[in-house]
Amino acid sequence: MRDFLRVLGLAKRHGAWILLAVTSMVVVAVATVFAFNLARPIYDQVLRSSSSVGTTLELPTSGVVAALDGFADRAEQALQGWVGESRVAILVVVLLTIVVKNLFAFLARFSSARFGLATIRDLRDRLFENLLVQTPAYFHDRSIAALVSRATNDFQLLREALAERLGDVAQDLVTVPVILVYLVSLDLRLTVATVFAAPLLFAPVVHFSRRMRARALQAQERTDEIATVIDESVRGIRAVQIFGMGRFMTDRFRLANQRQYLAGLFARAIQAANAPVMEIVGTFAALAVIAYAASQITAGGMTLGDFSAFILGAYALYNPLKRLNKFNLVLQPAVVAAGRIMEIVDAPAAVCDRPGARAVTEVGGGVRFENVSFAYRPDQWVLRGFELHLPLGSTVALVGGSGAGKSTVVQLIPRFFDVQEGAVSVGGHDVRDLTLASLRAQIGLVTQEHLLFDDTVRSNIVCGREGISDGAVEAAATAADASEFIRGLPAGYDTVIGEGGVKLSGGQRQRLAIARAVIQDPPILILDEATSSLDPESETQIWRALDRFTHHRTILVIAHRLATIRRADLIAVLEDGRVAELGNHDELIAADGQYRRMVEMQELS
Ligand SMILES: Nc1ncnc2c1ncn2[C@@H]1O[C@H](COP(=O)(O)OP(=O)(O)OP(=O)(O)O)[C@@H](O)[C@H]1O
Ligand SMILES: [Mg+2]
């Protein structure tokens, strides 16, 4: 419920619409009552030639009621003063009232729907924005289907309550008290009788008949008794016949059968009596009301018009009260949905800017891992005392077995995760002291999973960055060895590549992803198996094309094919969460360790 109220709190932004909605609702309620009140002159003046309007009202009433009484009466007098005695004028007023009422009814519904829908739109925007700042770990712990369901189904429930029903309910909440005040002003006793006595009268009848019927039907459905007797008799048919138990069994069966018959009959009797009883009670109540009204009318305390207005008003209470009663059915799921939605909207980002975080503008000093320990789950260390320096302008390769933690190392640089111990620094600053946006702007990352959109080749490379010339796009494509295949596409750079790039081959997709990183022109470029789905020849070609680009940048390469990284300035072998060997290719071969064994294995195969 707290969350639901908070959702309503969000609607504050649309205060003007709420104000318009509430104002219109008040106008509608007052116009409704005013319309009932017009039944008085219609009956007393339009339909009856000899009007009894104007007879003094002398009810032994308290001050409040007298005041209310006065209200209805004054309203009528004002009306009379305004339109005179003219019957036509009254009919015109009726028409005007109804037109005004419905005009505002439209305004009320429109503006309440407008604010409900706008609130939902804002909330959905906030949900999506908050999803985008979550770390990958957030999504590892949740099913994507559940998240999507919240963004759609739960919003649907909320929408039903907020945009479709809330307006009606608010209108009812305004209308009901206004009608009640009006009814009291017409006749206190009759109002009390209608509002309190009617439910008192009818409720027991309804309740009693419902319970009796349920019980009777329950009894009737106890078919097991009959089934049992049949089952026993048939199963033990030989015993029944030999011991002469036929009579005994038949009696037992008859008893059970008769019980069912009576139960069924009782249920139907109750059912059959329901409508007649209700009608008799209803007629009794109606006659009582009419008798009371008649005595009032004769005594001059009420006119026929008053009575008609009262009946109209009392009847008009029926639907709003029924709707209010049912709103709960819509409200409950909406409250649950609001809770589920707010859970996502409120989810704190595990990684965010520290207060006073500074923007990094240059990365002199490269990237440094100092005594880094990291675990995805408590005590399951992936990195333990990991030390590595990627000097500015050098290409460093990270190798190691599957699951050794290479991709984990990569994710610590743009702070997809924060380290538990030690520190990662970029340009001499701990990454946690830098703003996320500025840090990530320094880093280009290409992995095996790249996000391609169902859009043109060009916009997949540019990715919404502004001020990028066609020349720059082509240069980036050339650096990624992609320009050749792009030129071969039906519409070149304007070819639409399908959802996830389905219309391209795996290698073409990878080249596009690399071109996208190149155009970002990042000082630090990370390639995590970025070329591994290519054949060795294409891979070599890409690296040759990238050569000019990698100059003066800090590059981190991860590749299973060791031939790819042979020319790296530094090769680090990752083992047991730390760097086990470090050096260039020749040094590591000479060291005759893990790296040499890995190279020999690959050459053999
Ligand atoms: N999101 C995660 N939650 C929990 N454990 C994870 C998560 N991602 C990776 N791991 C675990 O961390 C360890 C290192 O994974 P990582 O992806 O860094 O290995 P890798 O060296 O890149 O392997 P590969 O060469 O197969 O890509 C693995 O044991 C893996 O099971
Ligand atoms: Mg990996």
TrEMBL record:
Localization in the cell: Cell membrane
A molecular function GO annotation: ATP binding
Matching PANTHER family: ATP-BINDING CASSETTE SUB-FAMILY B MEMBER 10, MITOCHONDRIAL (PTHR43394:SF1), ATP-DEPENDENT PERMEASE MDL1, MITOCHONDRIAL (PTHR43394)
This protein's record includes keyword Nucleus: no
Cross-referenced Gene3D superfamilies: ABC transporter type 1, transmembrane domain (1.20.1560.10), P-loop containing nucleotide triphosphate hydrolases (3.40.50.300)
Organism: Candidatus Sulfomarinibacter kjeldsenii
Coiled coil feature spans: none
Protein name stated in the entry: ABC transporter ATP-binding protein
InterPro entries assigned to the protein according to its UniProt record, in alphabetical order: AAA+_ATPase (IPR003593), ABC1_TM_dom (IPR011527), ABC1_TM_sf (IPR036640), ABC_transporter-like_ATP-bd (IPR003439), ABC_transporter-like_CS (IPR017871), P-loop_NTPase (IPR027417), Type_1_exporter (IPR039421)
Domain of life of the native organism: Bacteria
Chain ranges passing through the membrane: 16-39, 88-108, 190-208, 275-294
Membrane-related topology note: Multi-pass membrane protein
Pfam families recorded: ABC_membrane, ABC_tran
Alphabetical keyword list: ATP-binding, Membrane, Nucleotide-binding, Transmembrane, Transmembrane helix, Transport
Domain ABC transporter: 367-601
An annotated GO cellular component: plasma membrane
ABC transmembrane type-1 domain span: 19-324
Keyword Nuclease: no
